[in-house]
């Protein structure tokens, strides 16, 4: 008999695994990038495709088919590739073949595994970096580059906002020192690489700019047009947008080949993933340079197309939304659902804890975008997520979200 918390985890996790198979079978992302995305973007112990092999494709397929028979929701219908692999007897680690090839309980390289010869190289020199924005993501991104030895010019709207970035990086450096992983000399060196400015003109000579300002297309296109005017020829212009079309930012410039997405995860200094998002017009050497740069600053890059949610948000937010829908049924409390996910599945945070960290306003906007892009009725935002936003319970930042932080 399955326990209460096993039921919760299967209800929430199996549709997420199914969704990951669909993403892989559609060719949107490689098998390795789907798994690396969830491991390094969200701190999951294993990626969804490897998890499927470990659980058994037949087990997940059967559970989904039973659920689909009840719900009729296409999101619960087993993915075609899942059906095909099960029919071929490729049910996962137990038989040595599933989505991956296995030997002695570990994944072995096969025809789909990239070789070390495929490692990206820096095609353009990137020494100095610019960041536009002073919010949580911007401060984290400034810190990532400064810690890796880059001089960073960051642009904010006021001296107070610039000081906030220094304060956040100082706090993280002090925490590292307190934990015995840093020293005063390193802290001074990192802080010495920060160059705050209130004018964008300060970005004229940087090799790469990452913007992390408001998620508003009009605001971003104005910025990209201005960066195009200000930045030297050859400078790469990157956006860390999680939900807007990068092609529209590129259209605002005379250098669409140099415009790319670099989607970092929260908290940026800790989460190792960067989704590198190319448009149809991004130059291959710009893509390769940015992926090589990610490796140089200690991040793992995965490659994505310019589509709502990229890899991680497209898999993560429907699962978070499903958690809210499950809670709405009233049979499990928020605390029970959070605990089941952490204890049964080993994820670092429960869904409601994570929603409160990301912010319910941000989460709702992403879920609405996914609903629009994929047109699946099952992706409609949960009523309680909409209510939390309408009532101003945005998460930790407002002292209350799904949980209370007062
Ligand atoms: N800034 C800098 N460092 C931080 C930090 C922050 N805001 N928060 C935590 N850290 C550091 C801590 O100093 C600590 O470092 P050491 O281990 O080197 O000492 C480390 O991170 C672990 O922190 P804690 O021990 O305090 O706490 P934890 O073990 O619970 O880990 C966590 C915290 C890393 C955030 C972990 O809970 C986690 O991985 N959560 C999942 C986060 C996630 O899913 N993020 C993606 C959200 S989606 C998104 O960002 C995309 C989007 O478009 C919205």
Tell me what the structure shows.
It is a single chain. This protein has 3 domains: 4-114, N-(1-d-carboxylethyl)-l-norvaline Dehydrogenase, domain 2 (Orthogonal Bundle); 128-305, NAD(P)-binding Rossmann-like Domain (Rossmann fold, 3-Layer(aba) Sandwich), CATH 3.40.50.720; 312-398, N-(1-d-carboxylethyl)-l-norvaline Dehydrogenase, domain 2 (Orthogonal Bundle), CATH 1.10.1040.10. The protein has 406 residues and is an alpha/beta fold. The protein has helices at residues 4-25, 31-42, 48-55, 57-71, 80-87, 136-147, 159-178, 184-192, 217-230, 246-251, 284-296, 312-328, 334-345, 351-358, 360-374, 383-390, and strands at residues 101-103, 106-108, 129-132, 152-155, 194-197, 208-211, 236-239, 259-264, 273-278, 300-305. Helix content is 49%, strand content 11%. The protein is built from 16 helices and 10 strands. The chain is globular, with a radius of gyration of 22 Å. The chain has an 8-stranded mixed β-sheet with strand order 5-4-3-6-7-8-9-10, with helices on both faces. The structure holds acetoacetyl-coenzyme A. Residues 41-43, 172, 175, 179, 242, 265-267, 269-271, 313, 348-349, 354, 358, 362 line the site of acetoacetyl-coenzyme A.
């Amino acid at each position: 008999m399955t326990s209460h918390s096993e039921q919760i985890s299967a209800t929430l996790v199996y549709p997420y695994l199914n969704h990951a198979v669909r993403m892989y079978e559609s060719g949107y992302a490689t098998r390795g990038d789907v798994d690396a995305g969830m491991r390094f973007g969200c701190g999951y112990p294993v990626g969804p495709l490897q998890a499927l092999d470990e659980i058994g494709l037949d087990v997940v397929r059967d559970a989904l088919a039973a659920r689909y028979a009840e719900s009729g929701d296409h999101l619960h219908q087993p993915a075609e590739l899942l059906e095909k692999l099960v029919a071929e007897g490729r049910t996962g680690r137990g038989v040595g073949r599933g989505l991956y090839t296995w030997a002695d309980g570990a994944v072995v390289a096969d025809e789909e595994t990239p070789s070390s010869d495929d490692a990206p190289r820096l095609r353009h020199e990137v020494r100095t970096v610019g960041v536009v924005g002073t919010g949580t993501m911007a401060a984290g991104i400034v810190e990532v580059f400064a810690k890796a030895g880059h001089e960073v010019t960051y642009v904010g709207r006021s001296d107070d906002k610039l000081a906030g970035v220094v304060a956040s990086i100082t706090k993280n450096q002090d925490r590292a020192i307190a934990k015995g992983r840093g020293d005063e000399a390193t802290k001074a060196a990192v802080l010495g690489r920060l160059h705050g400015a209130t004018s964008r003109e300060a970005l004229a000579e940087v090799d790469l700019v990452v913007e992390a300002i408001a998620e508003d297309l009009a605001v971003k296109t104005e910025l990209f047009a201005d960066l195009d005017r200000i930045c030297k020829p050859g400078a790469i212009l990157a956006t860390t947008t999680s939900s807007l079309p990068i092609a529209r930012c590129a259209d605002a410039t005379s250098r669409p080949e140099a415009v790319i997405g670099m989607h970092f995860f929260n908290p940026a200094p800790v989460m190792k993933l960067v989704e590198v998002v190319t448009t149809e017009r991004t130059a291959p050497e710009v893509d390769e340079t940015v992926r090589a740069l990610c490796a140089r600053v200690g991040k793992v890059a995965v490659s994505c197309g310019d589509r709502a949610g990229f890899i991680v948000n497209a898999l993560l937010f429907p699962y978070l939304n499903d958690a809210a829908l499950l809670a709405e049924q009233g049979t499990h409390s928020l605390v029970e659902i959070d605990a089941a996910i952490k204890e049964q599945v080993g994820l670092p945070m429960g869904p409601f804890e994570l929603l409160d960290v990301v912010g319910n306003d941000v989460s709702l906007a992403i879920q609405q975008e996914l609903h629009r892009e994929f047109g699946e009725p099952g992706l409609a935002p949960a009523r309680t997520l909409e209510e939390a936003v309408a009532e101003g319970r945005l998460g930790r930042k407002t002292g209350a979200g799904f949980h209370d932080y007062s």
